[in-house]
Write a structure and sequence with these properties.
The strands form five sheets. This protein has a five-stranded antiparallel sheet with strand order 9-10-11-13-12, with no helix packed on it. Strands 1-2-3-4 form a four-stranded antiparallel sheet, with no helix packed on it. Strands 5-6-7-8 form a four-stranded antiparallel sheet, with no helix packed on it. The protein starts with 6 loop residues before the first strand and ends with a helix. Strand 14 and strand 15 form a beta hairpin. It is mainly beta. It has one domain: Methylamine Dehydrogenase, Chain H (7 Propeller), CATH 2.130.10. It is 4% helix and 42% strand.
């Protein structure tokens, strides 16, 4: 790809890709029908979207993507979002268009709800999003009907929760802290589930679990709130990476020192 040089970060959605260069320039290509490329794609010239192009973001320190939406964290600490937003997954209040199918943010727009935080990672699933702060806090927003957000139902923020016509909570439109987690190092979002890697090397999962993608055993049920993954495969591993797809997940790490493993066993005994 000759027009992409000095690329230090790549993220992907369902059918679009973002790239960030060492100087902070952001490029996008793929499908732009939901404005996930950060620029307007005209139908008669939509094949032009297949060519990586800049679209005005030149000072980004990190990037992120959900299925049909995108993010950039600028050097100033401000976080921008664009793309599909019908479940508030961009974290941007669109007032009269909030909750409507097909509603989208057409260009990079400031997420005001993240201004109080120093964001070190941001990503998304199909209709939800998550961000990790420098202090290890985890913020989530977007669709919640498959427990994608991991927030107990009795703790939904009153002013930011959108309900359907039957009175059921549909999504949370403002970045909201997930309670009950240790300091988090990174977050991976699948289509409707998540895995958070804690700084101590443990992993927590929640969300849609019908295909066992949450790694919590044979029941195949949704996990309502973040729950530590504990089994023989990970008990002697310090986890440092997780990735989530639609119906599967992967994790990676390094072997714990023998002293640490024995200490856990001795404590259990």
């Amino acid at each position: 790809m000759p027009n992409l040089k000095n690329i230090v970060e790549l993220v992907t959605g369902t059918d679009h890709i973002l790239a960030r260069s060492s100087t902070g320039a952001v490029y996008a290509w793929g499908n732009g029908q939901q404005f996930q490329l950060g620029r307007r794609v005209i139908e008669r010239t939509r094949l032009n979207g297949l060519t990586p192009r800049e679209f005005g973001l030149r000072k980004a320190r990190s990037i992120g993507a959900g299925s049909y939406h995108s993010f950039a964290v600028l050097n100033t600490g401000k976080v921008m979002a664009w793309g599909l937003n019908q479940y508030g997954q961009c974290g941007i209040n669109m007032s009269e268009a909030q909750g409507e199918d097909g509603s989208a943010v057409s260009k990079p727009t400031l997420i005001e709800g993240l201004l109080p935080y120093d964001i070190v990672q941001i990503t998304g699933g199909e209709h939800h999003s998550a961000a990790v702060t420098k202090d290890g806090e985890l913020l989530v927003w977007g669709r919640l009907d498959a427990n994608q957000l991991g927030i107990p139902h009795d703790q939904f923020p009153k002013d930011a929760t959108v309900f359907d016509e039957h009175g059921k909570p549909r999504f949370i439109s403002v970045p909201t802290l997930v309670p009950g987690l240790p300091p988090i190092a990174s977050i991976a979002c699948g289509t409707h589930h998540n895995i958070a890697i804690a700084r101590d090397g443990t992993a927590y999962s929640w969300g849609f679990g019908e295909n066992y993608q949450v790694g919590q055993g044979p029941k195949g049920e949704d996990i309502l709130t973040p729950t530590q993954i504990m089994n023989t495969a990970v008990k002697e591993v310090s986890l440092s990476f997780a990735g989530c797809g639609g119906q599967f997940s992967v994790m990676a790490g390094t072997d714990k020192p023998a002293s640490a493993v024995n200490g856990v066993q001795d404590a259990a005994a």
